[in-house]
Amino acid sequence: MRHRLTSAFGVLVSLLAFSSIGIAQTSKPSETKKTPAGNPSSTAGLSHDLSGVWMQYDDGTAPGFARMNGVDDRTRPPLTPWGQEKFDSAKPLMGPRAIGGQEDSAALHCDPSGPPQLLILPNPWEIVQNPGRTFMFFEEYHIWRTVWTDGRPLPKDPDPSWLGYSVGHWEGDTFVVETVGFNDKVWADLSGNPRSEQMHLTERYRRLNHDTLEQQIIIDDPKSYTKVWVSPPKLHKLEPTWEIAEWFCASSEIQTYDKDVRKPSGGAAAPAK
Amino acid sequence: MEIEEVKELKKAKNSVPYIRLPLADFSIPQLPSFVPFHLLSLSPELSLFRRKFFPSRLARLFAFVVSMLILSPQAFAQTNLQASKPSENEKSKDAPAKLSHDLSGVWMQYRDGDVPGTPGMNGVNEHFRPPLTPWGQAKFESAQALQGAKAVAGKEDNSALRCEPSGPPQVLILPNPWEIVQIPGRVLMFFEEQHIWRTIWADGRPLPKDPDPSWLGYSVGHWEGDTFVVETVGFNDKEWVDLYGNPRTPTTHLTERYRRLNHDTLEQQIIIDDPKVYTKPWVSPPKLHKLEPGWEIAEWFCVLDENKDYDQVVRKPAGVAPASK
Are B305 and A144 in contact (CB < 8 Å)? Predict the structure, then answer.
């Protein structure tokens, strides 16, 4: 009797030992596994951990441009009259209408970039997940954005802003981000396609495997486009040893660059506004 | 009548937090590492316990080893959380840290500034500035200050007026909301000022030996008891340390000390060490910040185009000089 009790006790105690080790190893902020809708992670085959520094693959479709097709010109729907007017007056950075020295992207005079343009630029970016909030950090102009994952709805009447207001939730394997509240001072891409205050942007993320993040951009902007603009998904590679470097667009540095580099090489100065 | 050792053990046991194991959903006590296991063999009550459940020395040894296994992964799991977000249990392990190591939240400085008309912005305190070196003096005199006796309205030349990024320590003293978020190995700070964010590496890495000059510098942080100490090097010289025009250079070594005095109060102290500019380290008095639990950092970019619009729409009609070019 005594022996059985002892051995039972010993077994219980060793079970505790190993279970606590198991838990210590896997314990991590796992808020991301829970969604406000109670979507269980156990049915999802892919990881809900999107964290890391990412860099898009250079499988771009425009000649000479290795990347930047997360918003894909080839699947763009027809423009509305308003959209066409905006598009015609834009002086794009790339594509057949681009003229070297004449480009007029807001980012060239250090205006902030915002989604979706920010998402397609070929620079490192980072995802950090925290309870109730997901952060994205972009090397592009040191921009950061918050995606609220605490179940709150999109704002009803947001003020226009550069980055918009984003909320996110999980649908099985996919992290779905929705953003509204944009201003119209940034293009949707680098070809001059417009972004209006009515844009409702959807991004869909899936961690296909440890090293690959899939990102799909869906633009619903009835003021600019006659239909929803769905671009093909774009793959991003995990860069485990990278850290987001500091990169600010500072007007004084642009002037120095004009003086020391562009002018002597015969290139046009940065467009002054 | 209780034996002293038993009383001691009971006290130790009752004073520690319990941990809920999600798997089994029952609690086991997390005993601090100083639990006197040797006492298990001493007292009569405990020796009864011992004789009943550990009939042989082998069984006793087995139980002892296994109980150490239970406790050590818990201890390990707790301290495995990086230094930036330690748990309750660290309090019982180290020499008593009485203040919380949780610095997270949206903060706003108290309006206890001492410059007339500017209620805040004294985190870098001019009253405590050491004498300047000759080089520092020349730089200081050429700056066109934003505040203080030297300031001339319409002539200010603070780099942030041209939408150049504001970095530490200047960004730390501006009267705008800011936020701390702690994650393993890293502390993030977000500033409403120009939507700036910075990373403080809290994973034990050293400061870089020869950093390139940058707007924000390169920051590392570690805990000293109650205080989170941030050190930053690698600054450029394109902005001031404050709004008076006091210089910041690539040789500036900035130290910030943070303490969460209570739930609603964060204490911040700024120490500037730059032998090229200041003849001694510049130690400002600590500054208090209030927790604002209902606030979220709003979007605020400094955009040159918007600055020009603002000139047209607001400054000109008001008769105020436009933002400097």
Answer: no
